[in-house]
Amino acid sequence: MTLLALAAAAIAAYAAVLLHAEDQRLIGALIVLGFGTAAAAAKFGLLSRLGQAGRAHPRLAPLLAVAALIALILVLREDHFALLMIGTTLLYCVACWGLNLQFGRAGVVNFAGAAFFGTGAYTTAVLAAHTALPHWLIVLLAGAVAALLGSLLILPILRTRGHYAALITIAFGILFKTFLEVNDALGGPQGLKLPGFTLFGWNLNDNITVGEQELSFYVAYIALALVLAIFAFLLVRRLEHSWIGLNFDAVRMDELAATTFGINVARWKITAFSIGNFLAGLAGSVQATMLGFIAPNNFTLSDSLIMISIILLGGLGSFWGVPLGAAIVLILPEKLQVIQEYRFLLFALLVVAVLLLRPQGLVPRAQRSFTDRIR
Amino acid sequence: MNALLHCRVLTRRFGGVTALDGLDLSLPRGEILGLIGPNGSGKTTFFNVLTGIYAPSSGHIEFDGRDISACTPQQIYRAGIARTFQRSRLNLELSIFENLMIGNHKRLNSSLWFNLMQRGALAAEVGAAYTEARELMRTFDAPLADRLDEPMAGFTMIDRRRVEVCRALISRPKLLLLDEPSAGMTHEETRALMDDILQARERIADLTIIIVEHEMGVIERITDRCVVLNFGQKIAEGKYREVAQDAKVQEAYLGVESIHEG
Ligand SMILES: Nc1ncnc2c1ncn2[C@@H]1O[C@H](COP(=O)(O)OP(=O)(O)OP(=O)(O)O)[C@@H](O)[C@H]1O
Ligand SMILES: [Mg+2]
User: Fold this and answer.
1) Which residues contact A296 (CB under 8 A, 6 or more apart)?
2) Under DSSP, is residue B169 helix (H, G, I), strand (E, B) or coil?
3) What atom of ligand 1 comes closest to residue B42's alpha carbon?
4) Does the distance separating the beta carbons of A238 and B119 come in below 8 Å?
5) I need a labelling partner for B246 at 20 to 30 A (CA). Which of A298, B151, B178, B253 fits?
């Protein structure tokens, strides 16, 4: 338990220093230090001890993560840019947990993650501009529209296998961006502006003052993203430790055997696909309101590939792999300008290296322990 | 209406190959039927057609008073037919318990609401299923019953075979299809496995079994009756001792492998 708490504190402190640092040499040194520490911890069995501790106290790790995150946000309270990165990372976690449900669990590839993320974003922009619906409802609707759009795609995906299903999603992702670009009602290539977000009468764009302290308005959006992440966390965790999680596994591993035992392959692929797209849509919605501005260029095939690399880096089907993968893929290039330009090359190399050296990902998926995790 | 299974002129073609050719077969409840024949004679195809993986090209299957010729594999499993595969199809990354629960699918509640929101009831269902899985596993192999949470990949051939049979049995099917359960095992192991199956059968009233087997000792010992296939056609039917003497059967096996007792 103390081990887990120490690890959470260390990670939060490290993240605070890294996110706050400006000097490029310092950042480079910090990144090397981070990877070095992780490698050393793995070598001396510290990581597996951490994993054991996490499994022994399944409720503690998520609580610590939330606590560490809140501490981090408070430390960085005035740093707009750092907070934006944290918010984006959180929202990508939500989307990638969704995609991991599809790809890592039910075995449905989806190379159009950014398109579903974008569906949520555009739905939000349109509904916020043209309707008087309460904004919390718009977020939910954005998720629902993304899931609905996915159900159009699921039919051709179910009819094809393997590479062809992947190609269909790639085509869809490209089509989606092109559709946005030529559609003037949706702002064309210039995109759309969003009004500030109001939750129960409170405008999230107002800076928050607590006593003497002024907090960046991003803190409010991060809080919203955190609520979303907790929701996604509970959803994914409960699915995993249930018969449904087992059905996903059965469908992914051996469709014929699953069918023989009455498991309806199509039903579970559709379920995973819809829930995944719903989460991506939710995340896209909040991302759009946080940025205040969206354009087709935010939702390209490269962005979908970024989501896939997050999943592959973290580990297929892995839960904690997603936040780690997202932090590496999203934050490092923003901080280290030298790699900005080469970031795609770098991700490609990183993913290949991980697949070769650690095919299960940086944080391999934990075995399901049915009996003591439910409730 | 005592027959559990009734097949009439069942045929299945793959392109030019007629893997199953006008098979007529009637199976009384509670019988253990041996299905034998040289390689490629259509035994596995028969299982695949019975379980709905391949639709019959023509002919009818009646199971438990119902025509299942056009049913999906899901419907057929729910109607009460479960099987093992010639080449093991366990999920090696999953634990014994998880593999067993895949076979138990029809008795588990898979609704989203139940699984996500009624966690207490789910926990109770998991607990009950766990106890039941352990009991069934114990009739096969006591030590295995205490290792239900270990991944399948760490187990030996015979243990995997046991789990595969249990996966088919746990849903309490009416008809169990065993496709070469002895493949890759020694005589001793085969004997032990067969004894386990017979013992488990005591606990499931009226369990009817069709077993495909190349090991003739097994067939002789446990079957009530045999059907011999060759090129998808039934060439003989009767007690093992009778069909083993049959000239057509001996001819079919000649040059492929000699029929032996052991
Ligand atoms: N999916 C398929 N596509 C094409 N041909 C097939 C298919 N399945 C089976 N066959 C053919 O049907 C015939 C019967 O095969 P089957 O597997 O049923 O034989 P078997 O009696 O189980 O043989 P074995 O003892 O070797 O297991 C063979 O000629 C085989 O090539
Ligand atoms: Mg066969």
Assistant:
1) A118, A177, A180, A181, A189, A191
2) helix
3) 18
4) yes
5) B178
CB neighbours of residue B148 within 10 Å? 19
Q: Write out pLDDT tens, residues B158-196.
A: 899 999 999 999 999 999 999 999 888 888 888 888 988
pLDDT, tens only, A279-313: 999 999 999 988 888 999 999 998 999 999 999 99
pLDDT, tens digit, 9 for 90 and up, residues B58-91: 999 999 999 999 999 999 999 999 999 998 899 9
Please tell me the distance in Å from A244's CA to the nearest CA on chain B: 6
CATH number at B3-87+158-254 = 3.40.50.300
Please state the domain extents for chain A.
Answer: 1-66, 76-357
Q: Which two tokens stand for residue A23?
A: 């000097």
Cβ atoms of B93 and B153 closer than 8 Å: yes
H or E element, residue B34: strand B32-36
- Contact at CB, B122 and A256, closer than 8 angstroms: no
Whether B129 and B101 have beta carbons less than 8 Å apart is answered as yes
Question: Which chain B residues are Cβ-neighbours of A256 within 8 angstroms?
Answer: 53, 89
Ligand 1 contact, B37 CB (< 6 A):
yes
Please say if the pLDDT value at position A373 is more than 70: no
Summarised one tens digit per residue, pLDDT across range A56-95 is: 777 888 888 888 888 888 887 778 888 889 999 999 999 9
Q: Which residue has the tokens 């049959």?
A: B246
Cβ(B38) – ligand 1 distance below 6 Å: no
- Could you tell me which of A172, A173, A189 has the C-alpha nearest to residue A181? A189
> Is the Cβ pair A242, B116 closer than 8 Å?
yes
- B46 Cα: distance to centroid of ligand 2 (angstroms): 9
In eight-state DSSP terms, residue A187 is: T
Contact between B89 and A257 using a beta-carbon 8 Å cutoff = yes
CATH classification (class only), A76-357: mainly alpha
Nearest CA to ligand 1 atom 19: B40
Residues in chain B: 262
pLDDT tens figures, A199-258 = 766 666 666 666 666 667 778 888 889 999 999 999 999 999 999 999 999 999 999 999
